[in-house]
Specification:
Layout lengths: L7 H12 L24 E9 L8 E9 L7 E8 L9 E10 L4 E9 L4 E4 L4 E4 L12 E15 L5 E12 L5 E10 L4 H14 L2
Antiparallel strand pairs: 1-2, 1-10, 2-3, 3-4, 4-5, 5-8, 6-7, 8-9, 9-10
Length: about 210
């Protein structure tokens, strides 16, 4: 794994921090009305398993993906945050943000070695709120990243715990850190429904990874 995973103490810290949510720095989601923008087929929140390309049999981590429209509400591009939900740095998560192009008819998206950076804040899956990133808190570098992505949205392809269908997302992802370290994943997941039962397998994975 990219970093040494902390033990169950981290999970206790996260639980305690959730109780202090009112004191935490919150993020304002940039899309006031998701699914009504020029990139409505893509925007919103997605939860995914990330499989390392070197050993793809088992996922390495959980990615939360936030997609939102540009300031000009362009139909052919969007901003994307790739958030690693494992708390390598306590509740300051590792996250990079970059601009990707998209095709609303083909439901595809792509970026090729584009500049990326750690934004001020990202959604913390376990805390269920926005929180400052590791980059913004200067735990890791905030700038100097490169990202490549190539993926698609698959309409009504994932069955939820309630038996309904939601959109799926799949993409290949390559990240180059300022240090020059390269990480490559195959990522697969679903639109975030907000229902606890739909997220249980992702929560279980994170808790097991924490030991």
């Amino acid at each position: 794994m990219r970093f040494e995973i902390m033990n169950k103490t981290i999970l206790k810290v996260l639980t305690f921090a959730a109780g202090l949510a009112g004191l935490a720095s919150c993020e304002t989601y940039k899309v006031d009305a998701p699914e009504t923008t020029a990139v409505s087929e893509f925007d919103g929140r997605w939860v995914c398993f990330a499989y390392p390309k070197a050993s793809p049999a088992e996922p390495e981590t959980v990615f939360m993906i936030d997609i939102f429209n540009t300031t000009n509400n362009d139909a052919d591009k969007f901003w994307i945050k790739v958030i690693d939900c494992l708390p390598y740095y306590g509740y300051n998560l590792d996250c990079i943000q970059f601009l990707a192009s998209c095709d609303g008819k083909a439901l595809t998206f792509q970026a090729d070695d584009v500049d990326a950076e750690q934004p001020k804040a990202c959604y913390n899956f376990l805390l269920e709120q926005g929180y400052p990133t590791a980059g913004y808190m200067k735990i890791v570098e905030a700038t100097g990243y490169k990202a490549s992505i190539d993926g698609k949205i698959i309409k009504n392809s994932v069955e939820t715990a309630a038996g309904t269908k939601v959109d799926g997302i799949e993409f290949s992802y390559r990240r180059v850190d300022p240090s020059g370290d390269v990480y490559e994943y195959t990522v697969k997941g679903m639109k975030h429904t907000g229902w606890a039962e739909d997220l249980q397998e992702y929560v279980d994975f994170l808790e097991n990874a924490l030991g």
